[in-house]
Design goal:
Elements lengths: L9 H7 L8 H15 L1 H4 L5 H16 L29 H10 L3 H12 L7 H7 L5 H14 L5 H10 L2 H13 L7 H7 L5 H13 L5
Helix pairs in contact: 1-4, 2-4, 5-6, 5-7, 6-8, 7-8, 8-10, 9-10, 9-11, 10-12, 11-12
Length: 219
């Protein structure tokens, strides 16, 4: 899918979405969802609609995603099923010890082991180490860290996961989308889905589109 620069002012954003400037957030989301179904090339079957979809995506992103204040207060952190089972053997591991292995381990197997252990620990404090692992030189470690973040339901990782998605290859992007799906497509990850819907890889585009259309918080 071709990318091009889109320049619009705020008034034009509403025109692109075919709504009034007084539209509520819910009306903007509903309008966007309808236009996505109509103009996304993978749904319309018309590759010529790519430019139109880029304009729609750009308008929605500026009206909803970029203007919405982001605070950790918005992210659900309670009632997570992770780590509730007493039979979880990883709970016996010290998060700090695993974190040191993840960030300082010289072998690939040790770093992957540590990332997997942190993901199964049930402790969100593990993100302090998993965040660093997202910049590991080995793709396998990065993907394992992404999986761990999804398992732990760490919503505040949205920005870091977005950066991983943008610079990642197909497999890494798939891992990020899988993590987003595990976290119930929370609206904190809208930027990832919007980027995915414009990706050059058709598989990534379709998966991001599927997550967007089935999400309850961003459409």
């Amino acid at each position: 899918m071709m990318r091009r620069q889109v320049n619009m002012n705020r008034r034009n954003f509403f025109k692109v979405l075919n709504i009034q400037e007084t539209a509520t957030e819910e009306e903007i989301k509903n309008a966007y969802r309808k236009l996505v179904k109509k103009y996304h090339p993978d749904l319309s079957g018309n590759k010529k609609s790519s430019d139109r979809f880029l304009e729609i995506n750009h308008a929605y992103k500026n009206l909803i995603v970029n203007e919405k204040p982001r605070t950790l207060v918005d992210f659900p952190v309670k009632n997570s099923p992770i780590g509730k089972k007493s039979s979880n053997p990883w709970k016996n591991y010290d998060v700090f010890a695993l974190g040191k292995l993840l960030t300082s381990g010289k072998s690939l197997s040790i770093r992957v082991f540590a990332a997997r252990g942190l993901g199964n620990s049930g402790k969100k404090s593990a993100y302090a180490f998993l965040r660093k692992a997202l910049y590991d030189k080995n793709e396998i470690v990065v993907k394992t860290a992404v999986d761990a973040i999804g398992s732990l339901q760490i919503y505040q990782a949205a920005g870091e996961l977005g950066a991983v998605f943008v610079r990642g290859n197909k497999k890494t992007k798939e891992a990020v989308l899988k993590a987003v799906e595990r976290m119930n497509n929370h609206e904190a990850f809208q930027n990832i889905l919007l980027s995915g819907m414009q990706d050059s890889n058709p598989h990534i585009r379709r998966k991001a589109l599927q997550l967007f259309l089935t999400g309850r918080n961003h459409g």
